[in-house]
Amino acid sequence: MKLKIPLVCIAGILVILLYCVLTFTAVALFPPPFSPLDNWLSDLGNSSYSPKGAIFYNLGCILTGSMLFPFYIGLYKWYRKEIWHKILVLVAQIIGGYSGLSLIMIGVFSEDFLPQHIYWSNVFFILILVVLILSAMVLLLHPDFMKPIAIYGVVVAIIDLFFEFLVGTSLLEWLTVFTALAYVGLIVYNSYKVKK
Model's pTM, two decimal places? Predict the structure, then answer.
């Protein structure tokens, strides 16, 4: 039975909703003052900083990471007939799956478990950088994919590159995550439009 709405669309919407709703719930429960200029996203999951809100952020990471699996699996809809293109999309799907696993582990190992948390955070942002570049490249080569969305994916990858290797401020972390979520939303939009 074929889905009326592509898997990539359903999972992508859940990725955005789960992360945003649970993150902003954690923000609302974080003791003031709170600011993206001063606080890292992971501060929201620290039970010492936010005893009431930490569970929401950590749960958000776990659930969002879980939804990244069907989201990346759903990219099969962008396979072309050429075997080399299918292989590139498949590699993006596999790396995307590992990024989902690393996001789950960020939620499991919150800032309360700092060495493990730092490890999984670094893995997540490196994998996101790779999957952004790779997915933008393979989608750019698909005739039905909107070129500006693929170019936006490259821009998001550059922002992530600055965050991971050059600047590393809390505000840039917020920008990296939410521009990546917007990229997910744009992929959902393009996938749904092609389906129609």
Answer: 0.94
DSSP 8-class letter at 113: G
CB-facing half-sphere around the CA of 45: CA atoms within 13 A: 27
Contact 27, 56 (CB under 8 A): no
Does some domain include residue 34?
yes
Number of separate domains in the chain: 1
Burial code (b: 16+ CB inside 10 Å, e: under 16) for 124-155 equals: bbbbbbbbbbbbbebbebbeebbeebbebbee
Given a cut of 70, whether residue 149 has pLDDT beyond it is yes
Query: Which residues form the domain of 82?
Result: 7-195
Q: Say whether pLDDT at 1 is over 60.
A: no
DSSP secondary structure code for residue 79 in this structure: -
The reply to whether 90 falls in a domain is: yes
Residue 1 inside a domain? The answer is no
Nearest to 153 by CA among 138, 171, 173, 169: 138
119 domain-assigned: yes
Do residues 71 and 184 make contact, with C-beta atoms less than 8 angstroms apart?
Answer: yes
Q: Which two tokens stand for residue 111?
A: 């800032």
Question: Confidence class of residue 163 from pLDDT cuts 50, 70 and 90?
Answer: confident
| Residue % of the chain over a pLDDT of 90 | 87
From the list 193, 186, 185, 190, the residue with the least C-alpha distance to 20 is 185
Per-residue confidence (pLDDT) for residue 196, from 0 to 100: 62
